[in-house]
Amino acid sequence: MPQLSSYLTRANLTWFTCAVLLVALLTSKFLLTIGMIALVALGLIRKDVKTVWQNFISDKTLLALTSVFLIALISGLYSENIAYLIERLRIKLPFLLLPIALAGLPKFTDKQYFSLLYLFIASIVISCIGVGVNYAMNFEAINYNIGRSGSIPTPINHIRFSLLVALSFFASIYLYHKKVYLKFPAEKYLLLACALFLLVFIHVLSVRSGILALYLAGFALIVRYILLTKRYLIGGMMTLAIVALPILAFQFSPGFRAQAYLMRHNYIEFFIKKNVGEYSDTQRLASYQMAIEAAKSSPFVGVGAGDIKDATEAAYATHYPTLDAKLPHNQFLFFYTATGLIGLLLFTIAFFLPLFHKKRYLDTLFLAFYAIVFTSFMVENTLETAIGTAFFMVFLLIMLNRR
After folding, report:
1. Are the beta carbons of 339 and 92 closer than 8 angstroms?
2. How far is residue 269's CA from residue 90's CA, in Å, rounded to a whole number?
3. pLDDT bracket for residue 1 (50, 70, 90)
């Protein structure tokens, strides 16, 4: 028993819970929920609750994250659809509870932090191998589906999966650069192999959001490198490499080439022919239009988080009566429609503050993660789904919880 109790420390339980959460992102929404509840319990169920509260209110990053929930809550004061408001608040509840819990969680050692990244990379690589095998076995059918705005089958939503692949690529590069190993120094070659595999695979997967996230994060890191080192020639060469990657992918990846042709087709349909059709790209663009239309009645404070669905449906009924109404596929537009310019400004500050507070943009992986999440926000209302909120909060919590 004494041996067992030495393992069941709050620090080890926190590490184990985060490990479960990383695996659950690919496997189980139920485990995600249980894991986040466990983290809240580990952070808040302790004798020195007053110290936890003091740590919380003295940390600008944690306060900023909590404000995301509070912005939506305040908009409920002028929302009429209370049932939908409660649904929005339930999904954003981790923004209220996890930052407070984080103030009471034991910090990860470097070894614990790096081992979590190892686990994440291993989970993604194994998943990618499975996806790749299935793609090879159903090559013609899947490529035909891609050409009709479909995607390669993945364990979870293809956009979210592609973002995880992009993040795991940068995690592999990060650990390789840091010369991190758990047991043998030669592990660096395995990390480099994982990075190269993930780089190729994300182009084979051909999900534009993931590829855009990869390039945007890479570009952000190059800009930071140039600003810090003043090595303009090397920075320019790295920029050329990023430009060359999609050209090579177009030549050698049928899925990537099909997506490129599809983008061209959708551009012509929406902007030139003024036709929305059944394609995901054109419907996403239409959702942007309708979000702006819905917000016109209250541009400064928005229509309220509870009424955004009703307001959006009304806009669709007027402008696109034959289409199914969709919430804006853009997180910033969602906050603009729901909470107006004031809420959008507050949300933008809350989102970016953790990146700039304590100069966390100097951390390579943290900056890459933020660039990837920003890309997600531009093409999805990421934080309006439980899995999207979990994706953002789990990784942010792990990165913030380092000593």
Report:
1. no
2. 38
3. very low
Residue 351, number of CB atoms within 10 A of its CB: 22
Residue 201 burial (10 A CB sphere; 0-12, 13-18, 19+):
buried
Measure CA 281 to chain center: 19
Separation between Cα atoms, residue 348 and residue 222, nearest integer Å:
23
Phi–psi pair at 275, nearest 5 degrees: -120, 130
Rounded to whole angstroms, the Cα distance separating 274 from 268 reads 8
Q: Are 163 and 209 in contact (CB under 8 A)?
A: yes
Rg (CA), the chain: 22
- Over residues 103-134, the pLDDT tens digits come to 999 999 999 999 999 999 999 999 999 999 99
Q: How far is CA 157 from the centre of its chain?
A: 12
Q: pTM higher than 0.90 for the full model? A: yes
> Rounded distance, CA 105 to CA 401, Å?
8
User: Are 41 and 97 within 8 A, CB to CB?
Assistant: no
What single letter denotes the amino acid at residue 317?
A
CA distance 109 to 50: 24
Angle at 319 between CA 315 and CA 321, to 5 degrees: 90
Beta strands (DSSP E) in 36-95 are none
Tokens of 184: 């043998």
The residue with tokens 């890459």 is: 368
